[in-house]
Amino acid sequence: MKIEVFAILKEYFDKEFEIKDPLKTVEELRAHLALLNPASSNVLKICRFAVHDEFVADHYQLTGNDSVVVIPPSSGG
Amino acid sequence: MTAWLLSHQAAEVNMEYITSKDLDLVALLQQSHHPSAGAVVLFSGDVRNNNVGKMVDYLEYEAHTSMASKMIESILSDARKRWSLNIAIAQHRTGKVRITESAVVVITASAHRAEAYAANRYIIDRIKHEAPIWKCEFFTDGTKEWGGNCNCHKDTGNINKHIYEFEEIL
Q1: Residue in B with minimal Cα distance to A4
Q2: Which residues of A have a CB under 8 Å from any CB of B?
Q3: H or E segment at B135?
């Protein structure tokens, strides 16, 4: 699946990258990303995930074709 | 009158919620006068030269444009349901925004000022807490920091639950 990250997460990951591991849920993806770069785990804990421009919950079922966006807490304004 | 109404509807519908261009506050305000509105409130979130005791050189904003646009549209729509508004518009900058420039603008217009003020505060609060938009602060000492994150989860225990300023005054 394709992963895209924003803002502070770009200090831990490439802006866009691919994950081949068969991850079933957003919860598994969050844990997997934290393993890839342990320094990012505190930020990942408070990130929201989105698929097709919609936020998805931790139990959301991922497929290999999904493009997943990782959204850190907002800091606009 | 008809032409005026049509142009106004078009201005709201075609609003670009996220833009890399300078926010034209004067032009936006000019579009926000309405014959039924006795109150127009314009909030501009300006970039200031200091934060947490450090001198700020400039800010850079990043957004997930499609999601942030949909979210701002939905926030404006919620505000229109909650208050009787003649005008409700918002625009947020991306890219480099310099000191004294506007990073975000919200304009509300209604018959009386109470509604325009309340709706304006509601809209900016929700944009700041919920929209996928981030600022990176570039300080004059050469350091930078992704900053000002919404920290509500520390109090609410839920990354989707926020504490809004507008709730304190309603």
Answers
A1: B64
A2: 6-8, 11, 46-48, 50, 53, 55, 69, 71-77
A3: strand B133-139
Å between B70 CA and nearest CA of chain A: 9
pLDDT tens across B42-69, in order? 999 999 999 988 999 999 999 999 999 9
3-state SS, residue A43: helix
| For residues B87-116, average pLDDT | 98
A6, A11, A46: residue with CB nearest B132: A6
Q: Which residues pair with A68 in a beta bridge?
A: A3, A51
CA distances from A29 to A4, A69, B80 (A): 12, 11, 38
**pLDDT at B3 > cutoff 50:** no
Q: Do A47 and B70 touch (CB under 8 A)?
A: no
pLDDT at B7 over 60: no
CATH code: domain B2-169 is: 3.90.1170.40
Does B148 reach chain A within 8 Å, measured CB to CB? yes
Chain A positions in Cβ-Cβ contact with residue B132 (cut-off 8 Å) = 6, 71, 74
- Split into its structural domains, chain A has a count of 1
Task: Give bridge partners of residue B133 from the DSSP assignment.
Answer: B63
Q: Which residues contact B55 (CB under 8 A, 6 or more apart)?
A: B49, B139, B140, B141
Q: What is the mean pLDDT of residues B101-130?
A: 97
Q: What is the domain partition of chain B in residue ranges?
A: 2-169
